[in-house]
Amino acid sequence: MPDTAADRALSACKNAAELSPLLTDSLLCEWLAQMNALGAGIAIMRPDLRLLHTVGADFPPAVWRAEALAASAAAQITPAHPVAWLSPAEHPPHDLQDQASYAWLHTPSTGESAYILLILLPASLYSPVFLLMMHHFRRRLSPSGAVALPAPPLDQGEPARQDGLIGQAPAFLRAWRTMLRVAGGSSSIMLSGESGTGKELFARAIHRHSPRAARPFIAINCSAIPSGLISSELFGYREGAFTGARRGGASGQFEAAHGGTLLLDEIGELPLDAQAILLRVLEERTVVRLGDTRGIPIDVRIITATNRDLRQMVRERTFRQDLYYRLNVIPIVLPPLRQRPQDIPLLAHFFLASLGGSRVTAIEAEAMARLCAYRWPGNIRQLRNVIERGINFTDGATLRCGDLPPELDQPEEESTSPDSYAAWERRQIWTLMQRYRANKTRIAQALGISRSTLYKKIRHYGL
């Protein structure tokens, strides 16, 4: 066994005699030393849940309370399930919210050589390395073949689950808690984040948690509306306002959302002339239909979403500064998936359950390690696509490495570049065109975008 501080602490502890079988297992000791070198805390217990020793001075003393550890282990370790899923503070042995990822393990021994181990890793140090090391230990528990990872336990009572917002990463939880804190108000909210980070899902959650939940929620993609039709689409028009105008005129989306919430997605694509009208609507709380002079009072909460740097657009005078400050009263930044590695297993199993049904129920550990190591330029939308593709390719109940696309082997520095995202998006659209025989409606639904946005992307990529 390597001579590390952790090893010396184990040898010198008051229960050293009871630990001697563990100390003679060189492979296990080497693994524990590597985990400790990562900054992990380790608790060692007997199968009867008696605490023998702990290593991990960086964790609060209360974490290592024997009765709390015993209760947590009893709830998660059974003979049929000797490995409890690595879960970022899902059901921690103590109040470790946002602080650590953890796993309960039962050593592959029996009798005096059997131990239960708790591995705690600070959230700040969580990495795919941890998952890979967990995988190697799991192989010791099942040396005959690859270990499939069951779905981590989900607390269905947690509001984030009810909203379809899944995650335990600190950056995600900050956004989620901000959303809950401000949902009850009426101020404008700006959601910013890369494409595919779940901005519309957050907007819908804000609406559901607000006093406006029983009123309409309307989402408008500003980039999907032809520039000449934006004013009539948003604000409505009067009969005779233009050639082809409907008899009696028509209300716009602001009127349709009266009393509720209006999401203006891709707000950075709104032309300057429409920005001026929007600013007036926000300031006066009335809309004037195209071709009319009469103001119509409205009561609408505005949520905007963007993947662009609006402050830079303000500096370049392509986005109005006064409108920016009107819209950006409450900013919420959604983190990219590469900043949420501990959420990848949760999301992967969520998509597996929702897309695979009862046919595909598990993910091979090596496949999960590849998912966690990838940088995801397309974020959650890309992860969903990869899981759906894997479900279609696998011939068993477990998703394996061979079922994953080769792009997951790209070097890290390549997978987050704009060119990488564009290449992935082009491949995704092309694949869906083959699958759905160029049915634009089904392709747009699979991508989560409008048909007009899909047509723009098809032209852009020359498909």
Describe what this molecule looks like in 3D.
- By secondary structure, this protein is of the alpha/beta class.
- The protein folds into 3 domains: 5-145, 2-Layer Sandwich (Beta-Lactamase), CATH 3.30.450; 170-333, P-loop containing nucleotide triphosphate hydrolases (Rossmann fold, 3-Layer(aba) Sandwich); 338-461, Helicase, Ruva Protein, domain 3, CATH 1.10.8.60.
- 41% of the residues lie in helices and 13% in strands.
- Strand 9 (286-288) and strand 10 form a beta hairpin.
- Mean pLDDT is 75; it is low at 1-6, 8-12, 84-93 and 143-160.
Topology:
Layout: H1 5-12, H2 16-23, H3 26-37, E1 41-45, E2 51-55, H4 66-76, E3 100-106, E4 116-122, H5 128-141, E5 148-149, H6 159-162, H7 170-182, E6 189-192, H8 199-208, E7 217-221, H9 230-235, H10 253-256, E8 261-265, H11 272-284, E9 286-288, E10 295-297, E11 301-306, H12 310-315, H13 321-327, E12 330-333, H14 344-356, E13 362-364, H15 365-373, H16 379-393, E14 398-399, H17 418-435, H18 440-447, H19 451-461
Parallel strand pairs: 6-11, 6-12, 7-8, 8-11, 13-14
Antiparallel strand pairs: 1-2, 1-4, 3-4, 5-13, 9-10
Helix pairs in contact: 1-2, 5-15, 14-16, 18-19
